[in-house]
Specification:
Length: about 180
Amino acid sequence: MSFKIGNRVYHSKFGHGRVNHVEEHRVTVDFDTGEQKKIIDSFLCSAVAPAFKPTFDHVSRRVTSVDVTEWADDISLVVVNTASIRHPNHKAMFQFVVSSDRTRMSKRFDALLRAAGIMGDLAGTDQLVGRHFAVKNNGYSAEDFDTLEYMAACRQSDIDAYRRSLAYAAEYAAEEALADAA
């Protein structure tokens, strides 16, 4: 991307700034923090047209069924079948190894139960059916399961940050046009 003197730019580490000097692919930027840095142009993007990129990439899911297969030594395989809330035809299953006495409970399974709003002991697998939760990274770790409320709050935070970026871009769009005209 080629920049001109006066363009508003954004750098992931240094934030927003204004182009002061351009020499081939090296751009000198006066950042809003008061720092001046020489940056390779590929590490910068225009601050005028930000794109919405959510930082929290959760998917909301509904439990459709739960299958339990008993193994030896009081250990069971629990398979939780789900459907996407937004796209019900998008199915996913999550597998957990648990013990019936909960002494060797999967941390992931506990996280799923909390995310689905079940606190304490699970009375039966039917208690999970119809429950909703949010998941990211295909539920590979316990930290990947969250409540829908948490997912909504994270998404709102992303939207608010995006709106602030748009307001910032609009504030400097007129200055950018004047700098280009000069």
